[in-house]
Write a structure and sequence with these properties.
Shape: flat
Number of strands: 34
Distance between the termini: 68 Å
Radius of gyration: 34 Å
Strand content: 15-25%
Length: 659
């Protein structure tokens, strides 16, 4: 597999054209002009700056441990008698510069060819330099790291190369990895990244190349492992870890969308059920073996006999004696230490918590929080989820409930987290869940039920991009409200029994619904206003007590692939500058008009079935709706516009309903 790279091919197997070109470069080497220093390279292309490599190898060829300090001293003493390093050769530099220029111009195959030739030239030059240095008595042996991985087979030549040649070769491999990746050759990109990492084991960038290539190959656990390694190296070198943290978020989100939670590779933190005390905002009962013993613990023995006389310490039960007797406490802690491997990690952070709020505060990026079966709460406070963590309930969705009674959201999410198998039951006058942040915030909810007795169940703001799969929303007001420039996707979700709309999309936000249901709400099924955008794919909107879909302002709606709007009081209603594109829609107006297109609104309908009255201008009917691919069905008796009652009663508040 690795022999496919000409850099590692034996000289006799090299192509004639490459041999001829290398010979030409070699013959001109003595008279080649010295090139000026290269201009600063882009951030994603590695420059060939001088690098002082101090690799700490496990053992040498003989298996004996290597003294790194002695080895560096030997190499330094040999440098005085050695020939100039091959990395300073103008031919190698010119080939590298040509590859970088081609890479920046999007000529990835050409860039790959230049980097390959530079690697081959570097090998020829370094082999002669190494031979001359050996003849002069310099020791150029480079020891081999144990368990170095498969890339050692590919980098066979580099094992005896000089330190500087290995550094330059690592940069060339890293750049060629980038060229391979941009060409879609992810396997080659991963292999070249591994070669660069083998040549410079303490350089973070090759691990970034490897992680990105493995991500696109769908190897999520291995991608996370490479990213973690690069993050650790960057931190130890004093470099920024932000690129690796951003990449970890991308890996987590991509893996989640494909059914893998490989991005959450940290600790597992458990949260115990609060039981009967949950509705009062209390924590789970204290367990001394899990939570420890302190002087504030109160025991019913209270250090007294039943007759009221003082009890000697030796007569106290074990836990009570541990409070008042130092010797007993030492024995108790020793016994507890035996279980620390299960309940605490190496940094002495507990792994069992009495409420979700404490677990979220103690979590780190990549951790998993498991809520055990039962009833939980957040102590009447908001959990600020600002880390990449997984919060999931044990068992099925209906086996773990978060009973929240407060006027503050249960979760405020500002990071790419994941929430699974939970039922949020909110009693209060704020939304149950609130998501905000930039476009890099991409949380995922799966098998989650959300209920709110006094407000919306979910508000989405900012530029976030959440994903909801198999979720259920029921609210006193709107099921889901989106704002800002957020981009929301919902798959197999249901919004039902809301006193206002099932879905309200505002500002410049957009929502895409696939195989979802918006049913049995007291007002509109879906409202799109301002410059919002709604796309319905195989989605049903039915039995709402207002129009199925109401679009106003400069809002836009797309209905396609068998979506259904039926049984509402009105079908698709459009106002002002609204637009609609319908393809494969089944539209029924229920007790009112199937389509109502007012003002300057525009609609384009194709391959759809429309049952009911259409009210629009003649021009729009001829050019946009009455198309030969559509099927029109009449209704008997004819429907009318609804009266000003129920969902159509006038309320002078443009922020809650389009009038």
């Amino acid at each position: 597999f690795f022999s496919s790279f000409c850099f590692f091919l034996p000289a006799c197997a090299a192509s004639m054209s490459l041999e001829a070109r290398l010979q030409k470069h070699w013959s001109r080497r003595s008279r080649a002009p010295v090139q000026p220093p290269p201009s600063p390279s882009p951030d994603d292309v590695d420059s060939d700056e001088e690098v002082d490599i101090r690799d700490k190898w496990n053992s040498g060829p003989s298996g004996r441990p290597i003294d790194a300090k002695r080895r560096n001293a030997e190499l330094a003493s040999a440098a005085s008698s050695a020939k100039p390093p091959p990395s300073s050769d103008p031919v190698v530099q010119s080939l590298k510069d040509a590859g970088t220029a081609a890479l920046n111009e999007g000529k990835y195959d050409e860039a790959t060819e230049h980097y390959t030739e530079a690697l081959a030239m570097l090998r020829v030059l370094d082999e002669e330099t190494t031979t001359d240095n050996r003849e002069s008595g310099a020791d150029t042996t480079v020891p081999v790291a144990e368990n170095s991985g498969p890339s050692i087979a590919a980098a066979r030549w580099a094992l005896t190369a000089s330190d500087e040649a290995r550094a330059v070769a690592a940069a060339l491999f890293s750049n060629r990895s980038l060229a391979h990746h941009r060409s879609g050759r992810y396997v080659d990109a991963s292999v070249d990244g591994a070669a660069a990492a083998q040549l410079r084991p303490f350089w973070p960038k090759p691990y970034y190349r490897i992680a990105v290539a493995r991500l696109d190959l769908g190897h999520y656990p291995r991608s996370v492992a490479a990213c973690r390694r690069g993050e650790a190296l960057a931190a130890s070198c004093g470099e920024s870890t932000e690129p690796f943290l951003t990449l970890l978020n991308t890996i987590s989100y991509t893996a989640m969308r494909n059914g893998s939670f490989a991005g959450f590779d940290g600790r597992t933190l458990e949260v115990r059920s609060a039981g009967e005390d949950a509705w009062m905002g209390g924590r789970a009962p204290k367990d001394p073996f899990l939570d420890g013993v302190n002087d504030e613990d109160v025991y019913d023995v209270a250090g007294k006999h039943s007759n009221g006389s003082a009890m000697d310490a030796k007569d106290l039960p074990d836990l009570a004696r541990a409070v008042v007797d130092p010797a007993a406490r030492a024995n108790y802690e020793a016994e507890r230490a035996r279980r620390d491997g299960l309940i605490r990690d190496a940094s002495n952070v507990p792994r069992s918590f009495r409420c979700l709020l404490d677990a979220v505060k103690a979590a780190r990026d990549g951790d998993r929080i498991v809520l055990l079966r039962g009833i939980h709460n957040t102590m009447g406070e908001t959990c600020d989820v600002d880390k990449r963590i997984l919060i999931r309930g044990e068992g099925r969705m209906d086996e773990v409930t978060v009973d929240a009674r407060s006027n503050t959201p249960v979760l405020r999410i500002t990071a790419s987290c994941a929430v699974q198998n939970l039922f949020f039951d909110m009693t209060g006058f704020r939304e149950t869940l609130y998501i905000e942040g930039g476009a890099h915030v991409r949380p995922m909810f799966e098998h989650v039920r959300v209920k709110c007795s006094g407000d919306d169940t979910l508000n989405i703001a900012g530029a976030v991009q959440p994903l909801f799969v198999d979720c259920y929303f029921q609210a006193r007001k709107n099921g889901v409200r989106t704002l800002g420039t957020s981009r929301t996707e919902m798959i197999r979700c249901r919004m039902t029994q809301c006193n206002h709309s099932g879905l309200k999309v505002m500002d410049n936000s957009s929502v895409t619904m696939r195989q979802s249901f918006v049913t049995d709400n007291d007002e509109d099924g879906i409202v799109a206003m301002d410059e919002a955008d709604v796309t319905l794919v195989e989605t049903q909107v039915h039995d709402n007590r207002g129009p199925g879909v109401d679009v106003s302002g400069a809002g836009r709606v797309v209905c396609r692939d068998g979506s259904l709007i039926k049984g509402n009081i009105g079908g698709l209603w459009m106002w002002e500058e609204a637009t609609a594109h319908c393809d494969g829609l089944k539209l029924n107006g229920g007790e009112s008009h199937a389509m109502l297109v007012d003002g300057n609104a525009r609609a384009r309908v194709r391959r759809s079935v429309i049952e009911g009255i259409i009210q629009c201008t003649d021009e729009l009917a001829m050019n946009g709706i009455e198309h030969g691919s559509n099927t029109r069905l009449a209704v008997h008796p004819a429907t009318e516009l609804p009266g000003e009652m129920g969902a159509f009663a006038f309320h002078p508040d443009v922020y809650t309903r389009k009038q």
